[in-house]
Design a protein that fits this description.
The complex is a heterotrimer of chains A (232), B (59) and C (323). Chain A has 232 residues and is mainly alpha-helical. Chain A has helices at 12-16, 21-32, 35-38, 54-75, 79-82, 84-113, 122-144, 149-164, 176-205, and one strand at 42-44. Chain A is globular, with a radius of gyration of 23 Å. By secondary structure, chain C is mainly α. A two-stranded antiparallel ribbon of chain C has the order 2-3. The chains are: A mainly alpha (232), B alpha+beta (59), C mainly alpha (323).
Chain lengths: 232, 59, 323
Amino acid sequence: MTDIPIGAVTTEEDRATADQWTARIRRRAEAAFPPKQLLPDRQPAFMASWIYVFGVLTLVSLTWVIVTGCILAIMGPSWWHVSSTGHFVNSLHLWSVECFFFFMVIHLWGKFFMAAWRGKRRLTWATGVVSFLVSVAAAFTGYLTQQNFDSQWISTQAKDGINSTGAGAFWNVLNFGQMLMWHIVLLPIGVTIIAGLHILMVRRRGIVPPFDVSPKKAPAPEVTTSTGEAAA
Amino acid sequence: MFFGVLLGALINLNGSGHYIHWGFIQISVANLTVILLMIVVFVVAILIPFPKRKEGDRE
Amino acid sequence: MSADRAKRRRFNPDRDAHEWKGAYLPYDIVKEGFVALLAVAVLIVLLAVVFSSPDEPAITLKSWSIADPVDFAQTAISELDGTSATATYGPPYNTTPDAAQHMGFFEPEQWFGVHQPVDTAQDFVIGPLRTLPNQPATQAALNLYQSAPAAQQSAWTTAYEKAVANATAVHGRLRVPAGRYGPVGVIIGSLTAMAQTGGLDGTLLSEGQFYNTNYTKPLLFLADGTYLANKAQAQHLAGDQWGMMNETGNYPGQAWLWLYTMWYQVAPMNTSSNGDLEVWVIMMVLSLALIFLPFIPVLRSIPRWTHVYRLIWRRHYRELSLS
């Protein structure tokens, strides 16, 4: 019996709904991300280094950034100036951001030295870099909305850089209300979506295989543009 | 009282900062520490052996 | 046809990969994620307990005008006569000619234009003073100033600038030597007194509304003086001190901004009047280069040349050589 591709239209029911947007999207999603590929219980044997944990460390740090940010949001942006509990939550938020960037940059270094863009993984690389850049913007708006001396200095200095690009005409770093809403709504959504795409790309292609060292011992060369091998 | 101690800083990083001047580079001791720590962690992560996995391993 | 061409395309080790056809071993990624979540939580709590976080209180126009009324008055006169940094900024605040940063024909600041309009004389001096009730001397001075021809106004403000350079503060009160500055002495004196009561902070922020969250005007006024800048300089936060990376006190700052701030320390950006735009362009180019690194020859070969991967995948290569 031949293998039936995941998402193929097979039953009478499937054929009846074949043209539906819903059915088409579901079939494409199933084909791109079979469940065992989305949540694999196996990884290639060459994955044998602690450098591989820095992606998940970055992700969990982001989780704590968001959780602590939500707690700050419950009580409002001035809370941490008037409450020692609030100040502690602010400290958790600051250090989770420091951890987030710490782990993310080490993850970047590791992926660079693995040339992790190889084998049609360029979009994985690109979404990773864009995640970094959007995260820098998100952190920047956080510093702007602390409502203290730091915010005053950072905003009055950064305005020159941003104004020089023309973006200052509508993205006003001196406008606390605007910057706060970018910080707690728009940029977290952006970071989450881009990081989510990045992780989906990793699942789709699998982790990048090692460089060939000795072609004689490696599998017979096959110029391939195929997608990454799915977990067995 | 314990919670109050928990919420205050054990090490006070406020006050005047310490900076290193090296040619045209000026960097705070704090930032330099973070950067050096990142390099150390990166090197250690690559060098420390990863636990061996075997087929049939139950995790 | 294109599939065949793709198959015939020469293998480039820096772009392509021989997909893994070897063994897969069990690995519990959800458990790994959960362990990481707990480990990082412990780390963050430890860091927060040990180091806390900085919170230098904001300065206000009130605290500034009390601590340094002379600097406040010098800034105020520059707002009135249109010579302050904000008054001469150009877009997005006003239309000062040739003020916008540019690189050759590339002048985005000018193209986007004025969208955060600020008239420093009206918004920072005259407008706030006009809101004060029961101040006949101040209102008379404002009437005299506003009804005078431009040349007269300029003569008064120039004379006041010279005088206030030798001003002193006695118990927080401004003492400006006598001079032929007409009503300007009363105007700036009233504004300083208004600031010292806290009234100017509220008036500049509210802009006549009850609710407001846009601090553009009070921040621009603060930044035009030297009080804010001196405090920042003392904390190593100034642009020429790599300040963008730094945090107050001994806290780590934003180390990830090292490359952005580095360009501000080197020629020609460090002395250029277009330095901000030049640095932004450099950083945009470098950011795009990082995004498109997989397409850039030589740069994308560095991982293969530097052999760090041999350490990362040493177990794989050892097993390969044994098999």
